[in-house]
Amino acid sequence: MKYYSTNHRAPEVSLAEAVKKGLAPDKGLYMPERIGRLPEEFFGNIADMDFHGIATAVAEKFFGEDIPSEDLKKIVCDTLNFDTPIVNVHDRIWSLELFHGPTLAFKDVGGRFMARMLSYFIAQEGGTGKVTVLVATSGDTGSAVANGFLGVDGIDVIVLYPEGKVSEIQEKQFTTLGKNITALEVAGNFDDCQRLVKSAFMDQDLNRMLTLTSANSINVARFLPQAFYYFNAYAQLKRAGKADNVVFCVPSGNFGNITAGLIAWRMGLPVKRFIAANNRNDVFLEYLRTGIYSPRASVRTIANAMDVGDPSNFARVMDLYGNSVEAVRKDIGGCRYTDDEIRDTIATVYGKYGYLLDPHGACGYQGLADNLGDDENGIFLETAHPAKFKDTVEDIIHKDVDIPQRLRDFMAGEKKSIRISSDFDDFRQYLESRN
Ligand SMILES: *Cc1c(COP(=O)(O)O)cnc(C)c1O
Q1: Which of the listed residues 257, 302, 307 should we mutate to test ligand 1's pocket, taking the one with most ligand atoms within 8 A of CB?
Q2: What is the per-residue DSSP string for 81-99?
Q3: Contact 160/421 with Cβ under 8 angstroms?
Q4: How many whole angstroms separate alpha carbon 278 and alpha carbon 341?
Q5: Is the Cβ atom of 252 under 6 angstroms away from ligand 1?
Q6: What domain range is 369 assigned to?
């Protein structure tokens, strides 16, 4: 299968190249040339299939021409060493819990899958060269990618993060790992980290010396596997006899997660509609209302993984809908919540139903509570475990939050990082010194 750039000014590439490059040379995002539909009988049987079986069938549609079945199955099954259960919160609202992986957030799925696929392609090429993965993070991406790549052959990972601007829990999840993972603590903000990574990709000398790749959510190997759990959620609803008029509500930042859901829909998943839930960073909702997309600087909120002012995957949404706002409006609704509203939601749902939401999932839940019709069944994506936002959540419910053992283990580790300035020359020198 070929992958084209959403900007249509770069040549089509193979899967291997799309995965290694991340971003297309014309700065567009790669898309698969075809989105194959799964057969009717697949949906007829889906309630009797397990997650590995479902995900393997979905993966075959994208990657089956490029990776032999047995190898692909191994990549899928190694990736999904945890479940994505749906839990009924009340009435017709379900939580799709995506936090049962190693770093307790949905990004584990894409991070683990991309690591295994990249390692597979490197091995195919003879496995001589090392690939250096650069990832800028404001918190969650770094931990999911670093843990996904930990100990994977042929790959070094360098995580750049802004000094003093990520929580201790997040920091520990990528600074305590060692092995092939290095954390760089940048004297600057997240935008500086992203700028350093982008500059490194554009530096020709560096690229002659090192094979650099990006693991941000634009990479097709991180983005497409997120379709797996939409199918798995549907299978569980079907088992519960509640699979009519399904609505997915997705707490969105860079819009990678919801785009994977839209692709699952194109593959035939019986969904009625989607809702994109935003915090105060609501450029998408504004686009739905006005038809005009005007990116702007992000503002800080308590759902900070959604603090994005110019969602990178907006280009993929436009590509899927031929740039037509009318077409987008037919399929996707929108909503936005302030920090106070998010706090209210967490307190209310915990008090009334005993279900503890994290600040991102809270936007997803409220999007359904406010918009779900009487004949609809709603699933919101609970994108992270509430313990990852311990201080925020404890302030709201006035109770201690249980910390899962996996998180405790990270907290007990010793932080190791290298400090650099936000000056590109320093970063380049560091990269050169590794060679
Ligand atoms: C990354 C993230 C999001 C946003 O997902 P996108 O794919 O960027 O839209 C939402 N919630 C959590 C917890 C995240 O880590």
Answers
A1: 257
A2: -S---EEEEETTEEEEE--
A3: no
A4: 12
A5: yes
A6: 82-106+223-403
User: Rounded mean pLDDT of 303-320?
Assistant: 94
Q: Which atom of ligand 1 lies at the shortest distance from residue 361's CA?
A: 11
Q: Does ligand 1 have an atom closer than 6 angstroms to the CB of 257?
A: yes
Residue whose pair of structure tokens reads 């307190």 in the numeric block: 347
Measure 107 CA to ligand 1 centroid, in angstroms: 8
pLDDT digit string, tens, across residues 47-62? 999 999 999 999 999 9
Q: Closest residue (by CA) to atom 2 of ligand 1?
A: 305
Q: Flag whether 429 is in a domain.
A: no
Q: How many A from CA of 136 to the centre of ligand 1?
A: 15
- Phi, psi dihedrals of residue 126, rounded to the nearest 5°: 105, -15
Q: Is the predicted pLDDT of residue 189 greater than 70, yes or no?
A: yes
Q: What is the pLDDT of residues 118-147, one digit of tens each?
A: 999 988 887 667 889 999 998 778 999 999
Instruction: Confirm whether 235 is domain-assigned.
Output: yes
Answer yes or no: is 346 within a domain.
yes
User: How high is the pLDDT of residue 427?
Assistant: 97
